[in-house]
From TrEMBL:
Annotated TM spans: 12-30, 99-120, 132-159, 187-206, 242-267, 287-313
Compartment list: Cell membrane
Keyword Membrane: yes
Protein name stated in the entry: Peptide/nickel transport system permease protein
Native source species: Ancylobacter vacuolatus
Pfam families membership: BPD_transp_1, BPD_transp_1_N
Length: 327
């Protein structure tokens, strides 16, 4: 509990720093007043709009007002859409979260087993083919993979839709496409596109870590004790392999969630990525600041989940925590 409370305190500090930095940087993105009133507006109209938005106040006062309102769930009004920022983010958040979750499930569900298998059978032709394919997955740009998948599966074969989210179902305040056939079909191509790079990265990392662990002294000792190869590989070696792999998976999930802008643009996926592109073009400071605060919160939650996963994976972490409590 003390560990979790300490991490929550760090999370609050991270959110404040992220909000301050984003608020300071986006002041120089552009003048939203020019986009809101148009070129034909008079100087008096511009000044009135600036005063109404509170842009005439000092920076510290604007930031303090933003933080105070954010604590109540009010991130202000979007300059671009004229709607509450919290409403806009709540509408787009489910689409981006589902895309990130499915892509990481694909990458983790295939990357870890294939990485371990290629490490245990590194001389097999299939293992060498997988390593060559992983190099291609790491090297190819994400947008190029998306365009190639659209060309093959949507244009030539006509199997899957090339844009949109399909039909969604509203469950309370949450909209999901996972419960409809068209929603699942629309999710396939963007999820695969977003997961290819992550799959190749996790596969190569899992292979490298498994090879390193299999050369460790405790593995030699386990063999000398006469343990069965499968027990050595999957009971002892795999648990030690998963510690750095879990770290990578957590960080990559944060990256996928935060930087899915390219995939959402290619497939016209109605998530946060498209929203951010429009906000940047319009210098929508409240929306951009709220987005970065949300991303910082997601990274903090993911890091906390990864640290807690260490306790379940590595017994040395539990024993180390117990020693510190005793001391």
């Amino acid at each position: 509990m003390s560990f979790v409370l300490g991490r929550l305190g760090q999370t609050v500090l991270v959110l404040l720093v992220a909000a301050f930095v984003s608020f300071a940087l986006f002041r120089y993105v552009g003048d939203p007043v020019n986009n809101m009133v148009g070129q034909s507006a008079s100087l008096a109209d511009r000044e009135a709009m600036r005063a109404a938005l509170g842009l005439d106040d000092a920076f510290i006062l604007q930031f303090a007002r933003f933080v105070g309102n954010a604590l109540t769930g009010d991130f202000g009004m979007s300059y671009r859409f004229g709607q509450p920022v919290a409403t806009l983010i709540a509408e787009r958040f489910p689409a981006t979260l589902e895309l990130a979750l499915i892509s990481m499930l694909i990458a983790t569900g295939l990357g870890v087993p294939l990485g371990v298998w290629t490490a245990l059978h590194r001389d097999h032709w299939a293992a060498q083919a997988l390593m060559a394919a992983s190099l291609i997955g790491v090297a190819l740009p994400t947008f190029l993979i998306g365009i190639a998948l659209i060309l093959f599966f949507s244009v030539w074969l006509g199997w899957l839709p090339s844009f949109g989210r399909g039909q969604v179902v509203a469950i309370g305040g949450w909209s999901t496409g996972l419960l409809t056939t068209s929603g699942l079909r629309a999710l396939v191509l963007p999820a695969v596109t977003l997961g290819v790079f992550q799959l190749a990265l996790i596969l190569r990392l899992a292979r490298a870590e498994m090879l390193e662990v299999m050369r460790a002294d405790f593995i030699r000792f386990a063999r000398a004790r006469g343990l069965k190869p499968r027990a050595i590989q999957y009971r002892h070696a795999l648990r030690n392999t998963l510690v750095p792999v879990v770290t990578m998976i957590g960080l990559q999930f944060g990256n996928v969630f935060a930087f899915s802008i390219i995939v959402e643009t290619v497939f016209q996926w109605p998530g946060l990525g498209l929203l951010v592109i429009q906000a940047i073009q319009f210098a929508d400071v409240p929306l951009l600041a709220a987005y970065l605060v949300l991303i910082a919160l997601c990274f903090a939650v993911i890091n906390l989940a990864v640290d807690l996963a260490y306790v379940a994976i590595d017994p040395r972490v539990r024993s180390g925590a117990g020693v510190r409590r005793t001391a």
